[in-house]
Amino acid sequence: MSHTTAVATPEIAPVAIPVRQLAPWALFSALLAVVTLYFVGSEQGATTLLSGTGVHEWVHDGRHLLGFPCH
Amino acid sequence: MNPRSFLIHGLIAGLLGGLVAFVVALGVGEPAINDAIAEEESSAAAAHAAEHAEEGTSTEGHSHGDEEGGISRGQQAGPGLATATVLFGVVLGGVAGIGAAFAAGRFGRLSPVATTGLVVGLGFLSAVLVPWLKYPPNPPAVGSGDTIGERTALYFGFLAISVLAVIGALIIARRVLEDRSAWTASVTGGAFYLGLVGLATVLMAPIDEVPDSFPANTLVDFRVGSLLTQSALWLTIGVVLTGLVHRAWTARAAEAVRLEKAQAL
User: Fold this and answer.
1) Dist CA B236 CA B90 (whole Å)
2) What is the pLDDT at residue B57?
3) Tens of pLDDT along B188-218?
4) Average pLDDT of B158-165?
5) Residue ranges covered by each domain of chain A
6) Which of A12, A53, A9 is nearest to B71 (CA)?
7) Contact B155, A68 (CB under 8 A)
8) Rounded to whole angstroms, how far apart are CA atoms A23 and B119?
9) Beta carbons of B25 and B248 less than 8 angstroms apart
10) In this complex, do A12 and B253 lie within 8 Å of one another by their Cβ atoms?
């Protein structure tokens, strides 16, 4: 058998990425997640930053189907 | 295998997940939403007429049938729904990617592919399945506008407890794994999560607003449709992200093997 399948069974140990390196990515992702979660899930519902109901109406069906409480 | 590659993999997985979720939502979620709105209109029509006759009440309260804020039902069910699922999907995918980057190499000998699967699976459990059981989503026409503040606080509060509890469980499991078996570590972490979330489930107020007259079939169809939409999103993210991580991981392993051989020469 000249075909080795060594690639399929990597025997190297996984190395953890240092927290220092991950922190900025994690922070930015978390902030973006909170903002998106707020606008898709709650804006113009319980609390309102922008006047009107445009955001609420536009994401209305998605908000319901993604499981958020809605009016 | 650095934060950058994990994030890119996550964003790709999230984009695909959002698109799949849109299609599933269109197929299994929208019919129930339309049924609920039809139900609201037929039952509201009578009440509305009486209300308007009494005192020129403004229609500040939310209704669904007609255009609102210039946005039609077709827009809500099409581009509006797509905006929500894709935007939510991409961000969720990115967060899953970073979560997978954190987990890689931090759970014993588990490969990055396995820890990525663990992150997405536990994410689905804690952010979708458990909240769905405690505070199941309701279709339009269910739920009073007066309690939206309270319901929003309860839902997001429970969601936060569930997600933080699962993160806590993982940290505890890692500690236990240092000098005990994987079984002990898993059971300890699992017990911690279930205990905390069980307590929150018992202590936090229920939301009970479905009118007795609301058709049960429409309610069930909507809730199942919502669960399927979210499952489609998370499943796609899980499959694509583990696939991309697997590809990167085998490439790295092959590289390591090559280096080893080169050094042996």
Assistant:
1) 12
2) 45
3) 999 999 999 999 999 999 988 888 888 999 9
4) 97
5) 40-71
6) A53
7) yes
8) 17
9) no
10) yes
- Please tell me the distance from the alpha carbon of residue B53 to that of residue B222, in angstroms, as a whole number: 34
pLDDT at position A6 over 50: no
Closest CA to A14 of B253, B260, B174, B261: B253
Q: Convert B42-56 to b/e letters by CB count within 10 Å (16 or more is b).
A: eebeeeeeeeeeeee
State the sign of the Cα–Cα–Cα–Cα dihedral B102, B129, B75, B18: positive
Considering only residues 135 to 164 of chain B, which have any Cβ-Cβ distance to chain A shorter than 8 Å?
Answer: 135, 137-140, 143, 145, 148-149, 151-156
Instruction: Reduce the DSSP state of residue B64 to 3 states and report it.
Output: coil
What is the tens place of the pLDDT at every residue in B60-79? 445 565 555 678 888 888 88
Contact B250 A70 (CB under 8 A): no
In terms of CA atoms, which chain A residue is nearest residue B75?
A58
Q: Is the pLDDT of residue B37 over 70?
A: yes
Distance between CA atoms of residues B151 and B141, nearest Å? 15
The DSSP secondary-structure symbol of A2 reads -
Put simply, the answer to whether B91 touches A32 (Cβ < 8 Å) is yes
Residue B249, helix vs strand vs coil = helix
Query: Does residue B132 belong to the interface with chain A, where contact is any CB pair within 8 Å?
Result: yes
